[in-house]
From TrEMBL:
Name the record gives this protein: N-acetylglucosaminidase, alpha
Alpha-N-acetylglucosaminidase tim-barrel domain span: 1-119
Alphabetical list of SUPFAM superfamilies matching this protein: (Trans)glycosidases (SSF51445)
Annotated source species: Nothobranchius kadleci (African annual killifish)
Pfam families: NAGLU (PF05089)
Amino acid sequence: PQANVTILGPWAHFNCSYSCSYILDPRDPLFLQIGSLYLAQVVKQFGTDHIYNTDTFNEMTPPSSDPAYLAAISRSVFASMTAVDPDAVWLMQGWLFYSDPSFWKPAQIQALLHGVPLGR
């Protein structure tokens, strides 16, 4: 399909044969569609406690440091969760902020975290 996809850089010094994941732009309509279809299958197979672990950039650098882009990512991830489970709570570890401090400055951290309602 027509989709806005970006290739990320290598992970942990591996070449792109073993890393370099692709990311679907969070503003692309397919993002919500694919994310909610995936989560619906997870809930169907395993049930839910309404808490979902999603680590968007664990040891990976996002394709843009623009706070608007990072907020769009978290809004889109959360929208795919709440499309399946209106009571969804997003659980995310904080390692990504420590593993790449040259990227994750206060503006980027705030944008990613504030794209989701407080407490969710």
